[in-house]
Amino acid sequence: MSIGEKTPTSLVAFEDVTFSYGPTTAVEHVSFTVEPGDFVALIGPNGSGKTTLLKLALGLERPQQGRVLLFGQEIDQFKEWHRIGYVPQQASAFKVRFPATVGEVVSYGEYRGFDPLAIFRTGVSSAVERALHTVDMWEYRQRLVSELSTGQQQRLLIARALVHQPALLMLDEPTAGVDVAGQDQFYTLLRQLCRDLGTTVLLVSHDVGVVLHEATKVVCINRTLVFHGSAQEVTDADLSRLYGFSVDLIIHRHQ
Ligand code: ADP
User: Which residue among 30, 51, 220, 242 has the greatest number of ligand 1 atoms within 8 angstroms of its CB, and so is best to mutate?
Assistant: First the structure.
């Protein structure tokens, strides 16, 4: 079977997907899959359609052509959203001074509808506690989120996405604005999630060098699919074709 062909166990399958915002075609005839256990990096230049693919995979947009399947189901029929965790771009998450604690924000990840007893509950649930331990933020549970560093806010968003122990975690440019130490910690955490919890990861990133080192599969997009396959198989020619200039300028492959 060729890489990208849909299997009964594909967690995400894009089949010949085309999507336009009015006259602007953002992605065209895109097909690829995310399989259980994959760590897929979605890379491409600015405006190449990465966020659009993530929106399509989250059901926030519907393709004009082709289809998107989640866990083998047409996205319109898919109801098990608790199996998917989403981590937004950190920069936009806590722009204003936010008068909530770490524990409260992660508890929002538990929300599944109106809960009349919520106001009588104090503290955090075991699911929230587990998620905070996973990202090593348990001791920060009573701190205000506005007092956290960018890297800590990033881990907080991951904890919120992990509350339901999702099988699939989707992240959009999660390390933007995070310092080198924070990024290191972030990738260590993702590795642990993949290896120890078996979480499948779909990561949108501009950080080509790091991503090629960390991910098992790579999807290179520039409106159409430029490459989809093993991270080891991406060639400098693929990357040059993707970014339109010499990759030596943008990548220092880790050995
Ligand atoms: P990336 O995430 O790779 O930077 P996007 O998916 O955000 O790319 O954008 C792909 C293309 O779609 C770009 O040409 C962008 O200008 C356009 N686009 C994105 N969002 C919208 C929108 N809401 N309305 C109109 N055009 C959009």
Answer: 51
Q: Which residues contact 180 (CB under 8 A, 6 or more apart)?
A: none
47 close to ligand 1 (CB < 6 Angstrom): yes
* Nearest CA residue ID for atom 22, ligand 1: 21
Q: Whose CA is nearest to atom 12 of ligand 1?
A: 26
Separation of 131 CA from ligand 1 center, angstroms? 32
| Cβ pair 199, 39 in contact under 8 A | no
Name which residue leads in pLDDT, 187 or 253.
187
Question: Amino acid identity, residue 146?
Answer: S
108: Cβ–Cβ under 8 A, 6 or more apart, which residues? 160
What are the pLDDT digits (tens) for 119-146? 445 556 788 999 999 999 999 999 988 8
Is the model more confident about 255 or about 160? 160
Say if ligand 1 is within 6 A of residue 89 CB: no
Distances (CA, A) of 103 to 109, 130, 139: 10, 11, 10
Give 13-56 pLDDT, tens digit per residue: 999 999 999 999 999 999 999 999 999 999 999 999 999 999 99
pTM of the model: 0.87
